[in-house]
Amino acid sequence: MHDEFVQKWTSQVKKGTLSFILLQLLQGKEQYGYELMTAMQQKTNIQLAEGTLYPLMNRLKKEGLVDAKWVEQESGIPRKYYHLTPAGEATLKAMKEYWNQLNAAIDNLS
Amino acid sequence: MKKLDFTHSRAQRLYDDYLKRISRMARQLPEADQQELLMEFNSHIYEGIQAHPEAGELETLVDVLDHLGAPEEVLKPLVADKKLAQATRTFHPVHIAKALALNLSNGLIYFVFSLLYLFLFAGVFMIGAKLFNPEEVGMYTSNGSFVLLGKVSSETLAQTGYEEILGPAFIPVILGAMVLFYIIITLLLKLKQRLKRR
Q1: Is pLDDT of A7 > 60?
Q2: Which residue, among A45, A57, A50, A51, has the nearest Cα to A10 in the 3D structure?
Q3: Distance from B18 to chain A by nearest Cα, in Å?
Q4: What is the CATH number of the domain that holds A61?
């Protein structure tokens, strides 16, 4: 088996689905960065340099798919909570539909 | 921004150093973006430490920073992207030069844009040449059609009868053309950015 090929492919798939996963995690629940990262690692087992989350969230925000607000905490260290915008909800729905189609198509192949 | 306090001096140094590295990476960005990034990483570090109260302070911090990754690595795409947005918004040449330098590794197209901007210096050279050698530099025509823009020796001029048509307007015209090209190239860069986002 070509381990290296599979590894490369896996990392491409992860990279490509990262925003999809993040949008899913935000569905129905606003979350702050650390929370979002922990949830992703627990639920999907994807490990990445956690710092890359912020450039990625920034891009999603620029695309208008998510929005964020700072919420003051008792500790004095505020949290930045992200939530889906209506455009984000619609995009996520479209992404899910495509994902299901692709899944079904691939299942049919084997 | 409220900074974190550590009891362990090594932990404090490590933390301060990490924030400094973020600041250094973010220095090219607008002030508000710099603050935002620092606050977000600061919050991540704080939450990370709070999530592991059982372990030692230094150990946890090392772990949290390790998971975050090197600021130089993780922030590079963001800084490159934001700088480009700022450059095409302000049309500021210094921002444009920095943005192109940061994006050179993101595709051949940025190299092409750099060349286009460098091409503008041809105008500077022509103006310089005109100042030093007003008789032999200009825009030349022959029988009403364009021949060349640049330097022609007086002998050639005498032989061919080329006519210089801009006269004293040469420098203003070249300057105007440079400004026009600068605006066009920058608008193209802006368009490229917009297409990339789609």
Answers
A1: yes
A2: A45
A3: 12
A4: 1.10.10.10
DSSP β-bridge partners for residue B139? B149
Q: Is B143 left (phi over 0), alpha (psi -120 to 50) or beta?
A: left
Section B75-86 average pLDDT:
85
Residue A1 has pLDDT above 80, yes or no: no
Complex-level ipTM beyond the 0.90 threshold? no
Nearest-CA distance from A74 to chain B in Å? Answer: 12
Counting the structural domains of chain A, the total is: 1
Q: Do A32 and B78 touch (CB under 8 A)?
A: no
Q: What is the mean pLDDT of residues A31-54?
A: 89
Nearest to B74 among A34, A51, A70 (CB): A51
Residues of chain B whose beta carbon is less than 8 angstroms from a beta carbon of chain A are 2, 4, 37, 39-44, 46-48, 50-51, 67-71, 73-75, 77-78, 81, 197
> Could you tell me the pTM of the whole model?
0.74
Q: Residue B193: which of B111, B90, B109 has the closest Cα?
A: B109
Q: How distant, in Å, are the alpha carbons of A37, A47, A90, B57, B156 from that of A44? A: 10, 9, 23, 28, 76
The range of the structural domain enclosing residue A28 comes to: 3-109
Whether B197 shows a pLDDT value over 70: the answer reads no
For B189, the token pair is: 């860069």
